[in-house]
Specification:
Helix 4 links the parallel strand 1 and strand 2. By secondary structure, this protein is of the alpha/beta class. The strands form two sheets. Strands 1, 2, 3, 5, 6 and 7 form a six-stranded parallel beta sheet that branches. The protein has a two-stranded parallel ribbon with strand order 4-8. It is built from twelve helices and eight strands.
């Protein structure tokens, strides 16, 4: 009798222990499924660390964003094909050439005011556009293209390129071109680095020539039309590249005086690409021109 009770007790303990093991394993498996999002509500079971690469790049696409680390490599945009031989310079016509350039736009009203005075004076300019402004002013981008002026890139977010690297640097260098190509049938060929800030790493990474300037109007600082005009006329010379910003109404005011005055002084106002061609220069990717 005693032996029978012992066997019964042993069997109960053994079976109970096995049951606990089975129930524990089942609970662990169910918990694992829930944490991986395989079963249960998608909202409740998604892990907090499962942020996608698309979400990271999406953050860069917002103008206010300061995200600097896309989590996957973006494709490098190839530079527009250029001949290994310099293109022949246009025939000299005895007139001085100057390139007016406008950074930080487009800006709708002020950019279009500048376009109007350019067209009235048979003049062209180069507009270095910031990518995160392009979708806000698509019609202005189209008007710049239709006017015959040149569209170029001023990066996507106006970050200091020397502080970036890897896929973030490539994004800043190339995303503006993708946005412009979606609006107009042109391929921007030039890039102006924000703040004129360039390093060996930026030169190596850039698929475009880097365009600086040799006449700085300081229009962003003075916000004074008369001083902007004065600064240009004091420093203007044949072959000059002039820096202005089409964000400011005072710059548009200045252009209404400046552009006719330059025409009276014998200047042709041409794009940067045209100016380099007149000088017999074929710009190369990663090289700096001013």
């Amino acid at each position: 009798m005693m032996k029978k009770r012992k066997n019964s007790l042993y069997s109960w303990i053994k079976n109970g222990f096995l049951g606990l093991l089975i129930l524990g394993g089942l609970g662990f498996a169910l918990a694992g499924c829930g944490s991986s999002g395989v079963s249960g509500s998608e909202t409740d079971s998604t892990p907090m660390f499962a942020a996608s690469a698309e979400a990271t790049v999406s953050a860069l696409e917002e103008p206010e964003s300061t995200a600097l680390s896309p989590s996957h490599e973006l494709p490098k945009l190839e530079a527009p094909a250029v001949s290994s031989e310099p293109e022949p310079a246009p025939e000299p016509d005895g007139r001085k050439k100057i390139a007016l350039t406008f950074d930080d736009g487009p800006n709708g009203k002020t950019t279009e005011r500048i376009l109007k005075v350019l067209q009235e004076n048979d003049a062209k300019a180069t507009f270095f556009m910031v990518g995160n402004r392009i979708n806000t002013y698509p019609d202005t981008v189209k008007k710049v293209y239709e006017s015959g002026s040149e569209i170029a890139s001023h990066t996507y977010s106006h970050f200091d390129l020397t502080k970036l690297n890897g896929s973030t640097l490539q994004y800043e260098l190339t995303e503006t071109n993708r946005l412009i190509r979606a609006l107009v049938p042109t391929e921007p060929k030039l890039l102006r680095p924000p703040y004129g800030s360039v390093s060996a790493a930026v030169k190596n990474a850039s698929p475009f020539p880097l365009i600086l300037w040799d006449v700085d109007t300081l229009d962003w600082k003075t916000r004074n039309a008369e001083k902007t005009v004065e600064n240009v006329l004091r420093s203007a010379h044949d072959g000059a590249i002039v820096l202005m910003h089409d964000l400011h109404a005072t710059t548009a005011d200045a252009c209404e005086t400046l552009i006719p005055k330059l025409r009276e002084m014998g200047y042709d106002m041409v794009t940067v690409s045209e100016l380099l061609a007149y000088q017999g220069i074929t710009p190369q990717a990663g090289k700096v021109y001013n």
